[in-house]
Amino acid sequence: MDAPLRVGLVGAGPWAKAVHAPGLADHPGTALTTVWARRPAAAHELAEAHGASVSRSLDELIEQVDAVAFAVPPAVQTELALPAVQAGKHVILEKPLAADIASAERLADAVLAAEVASLVMFTLRFAAETREWLDDLAAVGGWVGGSARWLSGALLGGTYSGSAWRHEAGALADIGPHVIDLLDAALGPITGVVTSYRSEADLRHLVFTHEGGASSTATMSMRLPIQPTVAEIAVYGAHGYRSLSRRPVAGIERFTALLDDFAAMVATGTTVHPCDVRRGLHVQRVLEQAKRATRTRFTSP
């Protein structure tokens, strides 16, 4: 690219402060141009720290940029992102795409109709070790099952413990997209949710079926006093057992790799990527199946 991609940031919460803003400001292919948030004071603080301007409205932000990154709760992302997409701006979207399937479909349809580049923040997919692990699995094949565990105390204290939407939607909405995406990428597309159990303390247990006959399980919680976070995924089959653990590194490392791909997509006119809005919609549909299948108690036969 002759010049860095001008990117506007919508949102100024902890994730935007820790990942989006520094990542966009420091990446050679992007420039954090302007910030807009519903809390003007937070937007000013974030913009000043990275040499960006503050937009007085979403429309003002859209007019100044080539692309927009969203660091907002799922319930508001569709309504905020639609004007940007309809104006032909490329987008970096949070996961999950929306709070419900209808809103996710509206957003995905708009992105595809506008033919803009899109990436969803499945950040673990952009880690080098994840890419190598998935490439190795695909090369040998023969995997018949898998499992994932993601256990943390993120909602008991710390940076994100005050997040209202995370408390309301729970582990399925926040951790679930990562778990679903990784199991799906490792074992083939998830075709069904056999079981979805949620305890009163929001401990989730799920069983998935995959295209091709594989099956997998997932356990997740954000309300367990576990430090550091346990985040592991494994598959097994004809070639034994292969596991992957999340390294305890800052999300900005993976976001930088995401921006590598995003800048390249825009520069080459590419709109297709393994983690584009289509992927976001597929994961949203699996989340919807899991919500519909959820039980909070088991009864004896």
UniProtKB/TrEMBL annotation:
Residue ranges annotated for the Gfo/Idh/MocA-like oxidoreductase N-terminal domain, each copy included: 5-116
Pfam families: GFO_IDH_MocA
Keyword Nucleotide-binding among record annotations: no
UniProtKB keywords: Oxidoreductase
Keyword Oxidoreductase on entry: yes
GO molecular function: nucleotide binding; oxidoreductase activity
Gene3D superfamilies listed in its UniProt record: Dihydrodipicolinate Reductase, domain 2, NAD(P)-binding Rossmann-like Domain
Protein name: Gfo/Idh/MocA family oxidoreductase
Source organism: Amycolatopsis pithecellobii
